[in-house]
Amino acid sequence: MTTPIHRTPTPDTSRYRPNAGLVVRNRKGLVFTAERAGKPGAWQLPQGGIDEGENPLDAALREFFEETGIPATDLKLVKEMPDWIGYNLPQELLKGSRLEKMGLVGQCQKWFLFDYVGDDSTIDLTKAHDHEFDSWAWRPAAEIVELTIAFRKPVYRTVLDELLK
Length: 165
Description:
CATH architecture: Alpha-Beta Complex
Structural class: alpha+beta
Order of helices and strands: EEEEEHEEHHEEHH
Number of domains: 1
Oligomer: single chain
Largest sheet: 6 strands, mixed
Strand content: 25-35%
Mean pLDDT: 94
């Protein structure tokens, strides 16, 4: 089943958790992906919640550092999607989750494209504040949608098509 997405110029925080996502590409045009800790084969793009009063760009950079240990100085902002992308979490994931307890049904995301200007040899996920990922890889954008969990596919398809065009 495909999870529908919706686009809005501002986030609907009454029903959706505000979130920032990153598409980070290297000099070869490949995109950074990470495999969720303890979930072999669960690959995704970096993303995370926006704290109260935090702007989306700062949240994206903070989350990327917390999740990967890669500092903001290794990223160069290329562009930002104009709209927020919202989606509902599937019921089986929402049931009993922190989002459900907060009265929310999904996430609304602000996405950014960055160029990675650092050196791959310095990427070390063990330096990350949050141990969200076990491994990472640079991948062609076309592979990423197929590698992610079903409910994220429409989001990734939209984001990658728009940011990388």
